[in-house]
UniProtKB/TrEMBL annotation:
<dbReference type="GO" id="GO:0009100">
    <property type="term" value="P:glycoprotein metabolic process"/>
</dbReference>
<dbReference type="Pfam" id="PF07555">
    <property type="entry name" value="NAGidase"/>
</dbReference>
<keyword id="KW-0378">Hydrolase</keyword>
<dbReference type="GO" id="GO:0016231">
    <property type="term" value="F:beta-N-acetylglucosaminidase activity"/>
</dbReference>
<protein>
    <recommendedName>
        <fullName>protein O-GlcNAcase</fullName>
        <ecNumber>3.2.1.169</ecNumber>
    </recommendedName>
</protein>
<dbReference type="GO" id="GO:0102571">
    <property type="term" value="F:[protein]-3-O-(N-acetyl-D-glucosaminyl)-L-serine/L-threonine O-N-acetyl-alpha-D-glucosaminase activity"/>
</dbReference>
<dbReference type="InterPro" id="IPR017853">
    <property type="entry name" value="GH"/>
</dbReference>
<dbReference type="InterPro" id="IPR011496">
    <property type="entry name" value="O-GlcNAcase_cat"/>
</dbReference>
<keyword id="KW-0326">Glycosidase</keyword>
<feature type="domain" description="GH84">
    <location>
        <begin position="9"/>
        <end position="284"/>
    </location>
</feature>
<dbReference type="InterPro" id="IPR051822">
    <property type="entry name" value="Glycosyl_Hydrolase_84"/>
</dbReference>
Length: 779
């Protein structure tokens, strides 16, 4: 039987992820946002705060106390309950009087700073008891319960939370109902202590009323959901910008609260917080009321964003919903009716997008001009915790009213980033188990093009099939351009805090889309590619695409399964025939740039621009009449490749269509050498019969393995704007995909004065014995 407790429903945020913790300034901004969303609880539990977890016994210094008190006071000012959590489970001895005293001292120290609520966390630990504890306690559950009860009684706190080791259904042994661990907690843990739970899995798609009812009966109390739906600390390529989803409002009576453990990137959590706040307000009103009065609600300005086509939680009867937060802007009656009648995912997301777009216009500095999740190792300096690390507080942190006024003032300052851009952003980085509508469309279009590319290689060709394929290619180009537009517009926003938090993700997907688009366009020229249908089918119906379509029915599968890893970016990347892995998705530039560099095949009309580039001339007016020496240089450097196969001579262009680099690739070295000696060299000798030249062809005098069957190679020439390693990796990824599809199994590259050995070693290349500048790798 579930114990019905008269407790306030806890709606809020738990900072419980692995990775760089938020700054004190960001937490203050969080409290302000939570207050505006009528949330009431924040749990301080960053896994990488060493004094929260690894060095939990150590007391805080005076300086750390001051920072903690400042945070506790800031939370209180916004009517947010600050819950201090501690995680001693890595090495605590439950029967040790010294360890128990250390925990009491630590909690008392924080209590004196004004903290009134605490949490004890035993997640992600080895539950096996030490010999000393096994002599005292019958199980880890009993040991944890007894320790928690003692601390609860010692602190005399009305708000105390507990995170169990079996914190989800898949970790309950053998089942939730039969788990000795959970049943022991239900019997021995003080009834006033709340127990946190993530759902059926660590990150469940849905949380059902039936599962929570069962858990409540076992725990003999209503649980608090620690919701990981927006957590992204397990995948460096994913961020979750979709709305709160998969938790029906019917859960509300069976819970004591819902706390979201969101993205590592602070600014990425606006929608997660906003939509959870909407969910809690609606669920509360469903619980408390049976009538609805539009005049009682004051939400936000008229909304004009088109909602994404995503699943909607079933409707519930129209109810009364009163919101007392005067800080939220007003909403039209029609909008209120559509949202408040039930929790509708699309409508809740629509409201959040409208509010979030305003944030992009704020002139806000980044707390730390680096990307937060690309290096998850915590640096410990002189044993200091994150509270004493160098402060990078936000420049824009004011009172709630000041923030709202700033928003209203900046709303009139239009920027390039549009509602459509923002909607595309949320649909490419939606939720752990799903992409938004536009993300799915982009993925399915590329999949269709690759799976059906053999249609344009058929002999005789089918006019209908060819027309359909190229029509789909045009649609895919349009969708790709939307991604480029989003990237360019986003890169120019004045809010640096948002820019640095989201830029690496948008950069990644832009780079993958660019690589795929370049590759597909190369495939589209079936005559120049000269590939057999068997080769085409073998390259594009393999495991790489099949993984993206792998049906997932296993209730134990989490979003770090290969089917989901990398999200949309990973799914698109897996479609490239060359499977080089994430090492070919380099980190975004340290300083964000809005430039979009594209790669395409050479055409005869490119000769003049390529001629100028090869001479190192940028200004067209500086190019004199062609000289014989310049012609010879051009033919030897570039002409030899374009005469063999111009479609594997790739040009790199910037936004202004200016050439800034090229990669010349050869799919069969033996055929290339034969072409030089049998055809190209005689033609060049005839062309320059009256000119003496000392130039030698470096391509002919190569070792036997270089000329072996299925061996390929590439050379490259770049200007400074291209030689960002992250850009170069994407270009090479495209080129290696082309070479692999063309039948090559090995690729060679000779270092020049620009590229370096370490770069190619990182990409999986190996030095050729006897030639320190020649490298190779398998495809």
């Amino acid at each position: 039987m579930v114990v019905i407790e008269e407790k306030p429903f806890r709606c809020g945020v738990v900072e419980g992820f692995y990775g760089r913790p938020w700054t004190c300034g960001q937490r203050k901004e969080l409290f302000n946002r939570m207050h505006r969303s009528t949330m009431n609880t924040y749990i301080y539990a960053p896994k990488d705060d060493i004094k929260h977890r690894a060095l939990w016994r150590q007391p805080y210094t005076k300086e750390e106390e001051m920072k903690l008190k400042d945070l506790i006071d800031a939370a209180s000012a916004e009517e947010i309950l600050f819950v201090y959590a501690i995680s001693p489970g890595l090495d605590v001895t439950f029967s040790s009087a010294a360890d128990i005293s250390a925990l009491k001292r630590k909690m008392k120290q924080v209590s004196k700073l004004g903290c009134k609520a605490f949490a004890l966390l035993f997640d992600d630990i080895n539950p096996t008891l030490k010999p000393a504890d096994a002599a005292v306690y019958s199980s880890s559950a009993e040991a944890q319960a007894m320790l928690t009860n003692e601390l609860f009684e010692h602190m005399k706190s009305q708000q105390f939370l507990f995170c169990p080791t079996e914190y989800c259904k898949t970790r309950a042994l053998p089942t939730v109902r039969k788990s000795e661990y959970l049943n022991t907690l239900g019997q021995k843990l003080h009834p006033d202590i709340d127990v946190m739970w993530t759902g059926d899995k660590v990150i469940p798609e849905v949380i059902t009323k039936e599962s929570i009812k069962e858990l409540g009966e076992v725990l003999q109390r209503k649980p608090v959901i620690w919701d990981n739906i927006h957590a992204n600390d397990y995948d460096q390529r994913r961020v979750f910008l979709g709305g709160y989803h998969g938790r029906p409002v019917e859960l509300y009576p069976y819970l004591n609260g819902i706390l979201t453990n969101p993205n590592c990137e602070f600014e990425a959590n606006f929608i997660a917080i906003h939509t959870l706040g909407t969910w809690c307000r609606i669920a509360n009103s469903v619980q408390d009321s049976s009538s609805f009065d539009v005049q009682m609600v004051d939400l936000s300005d008229e909304v004009c964003v088109t909602p994404p086509e995503t699943p909607v939680v079933p409707d519930v009867p129209e109810v009364d919903c009163e919101m007392s937060d005067e800080l939220l802007p007003s909403l039209t009656a029609a909008d209120v009716t559509s949202v408040i009648a039930s929790y509708n995912y699309s409508e809740a997301l629509k409201l959040a997008l409208e509010e979030w777009l305003i944030e992009f216009n704020l002139n806000k500095k980044a707390p730390l001009k680096s990307y937060s999740k690309r290096n998850l190792k915590t640096q410990v300096i002189n044993g200091q915790s994150v509270l004493t690390a160098k402060s990078y507080d936000l420049d824009v942190i004011g009172t709630a009213k000041e923030t709202i006024e700033t928003m209203k003032e900046d709303k009139s300052k239009l920027m390039a980033l549009s509602h459509e851009n923002l909607q595309l952003l949320t649909e490419m980085f939606c939720l752990p188990y799903e992409h938004g509508t536009k993300g799915n469309q982009l993925l399915s279009d590329f999949e269709w093009l690759l799976e059906n590319v053999s249609d344009i290689y058929e002999e005789p060709p089918s006019k209908e099939k060819v027309s359909k394929w190229f029509e789909k290619l045009l649609q895919c180009d349009e969708k790709s351009q939307e991604v480029y537009n989003l990237f360019t517009n986003f890169s120019k926003i004045p809010n640096e805090a948002i820019l640095y938090d989201l830029y690496p993700y948008i950069w990644d997907v832009k780079e993958v889309v660019s690589a795929l688009e370049s590759y597909v366009h190369w495939l589209s020229d079936s005559i120049a590619c000269n590939l057999s249908i068997d080769t085409i089918k073998r390259s594009h119906n393999g495991l790489n695409i099949a993984i993206n379509k792998l049906p997932i029915m296993n209730e134990f599968v989490e979003p770090w399964h290969i089917r989901y890893i990398g999200g949309l970016t990973g799914a698109l990347h897996r479609m490239l025939p060359f499977q080089g892995g994430y090492i070919y998705l380099g980190q975004a530039p340290d300083i964000p740039t809005s430039a979009v560099l594209k790669t395409r095949s050479y055409s005869p009309s490119d000769k003049d621009s390529l001629y100028r580039f090869n001479r190192g001339v940028v200004d067209k007016s500086e190019v004199p009449m062609e000289t014989t020496e310049d012609d010879i240089a051009f033919d030897y450097d570039i002409g030899v490749f374009s005469s063999f196969n111009s479609k594997t001579l790739f040009l790199i262009e910037d936004d202004e269509k200016e050439l800034c680099g090229y990669v010349a690739a050869v799919s069969d070295n033996k055929q290339f050498v034969d072409h030089i000696t049998d055809k190209w060299l005689p033609e060049v000798n005839t062309k320059y019969s009256e000119t003496k030249t000392d130039r030698k062809l470096p391509h002919v005098d190569k070792p036997d393995e270089w000329k072996a069957p299925n061996s390929s190679h590439f050379i490259l020439k770049l200007d400074s704007k291209v030689y960002e390693e992250c850009i170069l990796k994407r270009v090479i990824n495209t080129v290696l995909s082309v070479l692999k599809t063309s039948g090559a199994t090995t690729v060679y590259h000779k270092l020049d004065g620009v590229t370096n050995q370490d770069f190619f070693l990182e990409l999986g290349f190996f030095p050729v014995q006897g030639d320190e500048k020649m490298f190779w790798r398998s495809l």
